[in-house]
Amino acid sequence: MHVVHLSVECFPLAKVGGLADVVGALPRYQRKLGVDAWVVCPFYDKPFTRDHNFSSIAKGSFFQGSEELHYEVLKETSDSLGFPLYLIHIPSKLDRQEIYCYPDEAEQWIAFQHAFLHWLKNSQIKPDVINCHDHHVGLIPFLTKHASDFKEFENVKTVFTVHNGQYQGWMNWSKGILLPAFDTWKWGLLDWDGLINPLAVAIKCCDAFTTVSEGYLQELYRQANGLEDLFFSEAAKGYGIVNGIDDAYWNPGEDKLIPVNYDVESSKKGKAKNKKVFCEKYGLDETLPLLTYIGRFATEKGADLLSEIVVNVFSNNENKISIFILGSGDTQIQTNLEKLLTEYPGRLAAFFGYNETLAHEVYAAADMILMPSRVEPCGLNQLYAMKYGTIPIVRRIGGLKDTVRDVSEKKGYGFVFPEATPEDAASAIERALDYIGQRGKMQTIRRKEMELDFSWDKSAQQYIDLYNRL
């Protein structure tokens, strides 16, 4: 079976969030299971593309409106990621340093999808399945069925994976002229509330759609930023498949990015050594439980609650806990946290930005991780944390609900709270402090969570089973 994954993110080529981690791992695990899985992404002027060798395998051109665009398809020569990686380069469109936030983003993603299909057609490549990831490539299920130039792909199965349904790629109908010629009788498939909505297009036209957890699939029927009725009407072709993690890369026993390696048996001493190094670096007390937050400063992540949570926790637990925050995003959230750094020296520390090495160091050093999310389709941070013996304190939402079991339940290994409020989060943190303060409890939870299997093996097979059904 030949499967092509189409995405604008793929770790380590280009990463903003969990989308990149999924696309950078799932195809590799599928190949281990006998599937010929490829990844196709836009070209970016980033360290990965500068440090690896690429060969030109195809060139072509097409008109996007009145503009003629020339593209080149580049293949990474060594397959260093464990799967064939192809990049589509288009001067002035797909040749930039950043992934998002350009004013012509709609034009970029239309060009990417058009060039992809143009290349497949000219090269006579016909995959069995095209797995499209998020709204940036949401037009593909429509174009393969209804674009006049690509009729040969109308029987190719399309699977659309929803990583985050809050972002939908809305564009004005004035952009319609930029699309490849299509059957205009089908224009209604492109429309949602008077706009072209690529996410809605994908859900309408794909052969099946997946979400990155079963819990998130159920939530989309009730909360999908205006697409609730659509998801509900198309529910028969929806599947929830929880994300896995790359346990070769996220493995404290072999991780080259942390000071001291450890496994389940040596986790108590190993984490203590990592914590000592980390706390010395950031001026924190290594004898206190260390709580961390890692992620984007965005309201959907509950990051706007962090300042109040910090104040509540320190007010009620003086000299009982240290906190470290790693993240970036909303500038007001960062400003609020910066003010607290001066109020709680030696108790609160932060790094504003994202640093892959530092993230690994934090997972290895921290005792607990906080995820007060309002929206969390799957969540990977809690999975990484548990792999490193760091206890999750999470809101009961989406994939967090699917992957973290509260200690009050049989075989529980985390702390779950109901609502995204400072009070609920602070209460869960205090409950965790009380629990792990009891003799032997911390190590018992660590052992449970580190022995959990959240690898991609099971999830990759579920995707393959879906492809086979189609």
TrEMBL record:
Pathway: Glycan biosynthesis; glycogen biosynthesis. Residues 2-230 form the Starch synthase catalytic domain. HAMAP family: Glycogen_synth (MF_00484). Pfam families: Glyco_transf_5, Glycos_transf_1. Keywords: Glycogen biosynthesis, Glycosyltransferase, Transferase. Belongs to the glycosyltransferase 1 family. Bacterial/plant glycogen synthase subfamily. ADP-alpha-D-glucose binds at K15. The keyword Membrane does not apply. This is Glycogen synthase. One of its GO terms (molecular function) is alpha-1,4-glucan glucosyltransferase (UDP-glucose donor) activity. It catalyses: [(1->4)-alpha-D-glucosyl](n) + ADP-alpha-D-glucose = [(1->4)-alpha-D-glucosyl](n+1) + ADP + H(+). GO terms for biological process: glycogen biosynthetic process. Residues 280-434 form the Glycosyl transferase family domain. Synthesizes alpha-1,4-glucan chains using ADP-glucose. Gene3D superfamilies: Glycogen Phosphorylase B. CDD domains: GT5_Glycogen_synthase_DULL1-like (cd03791). It comes from Sphingobacterium phlebotomi. Its EC number is 2.4.1.21. Coiled coil: none annotated.
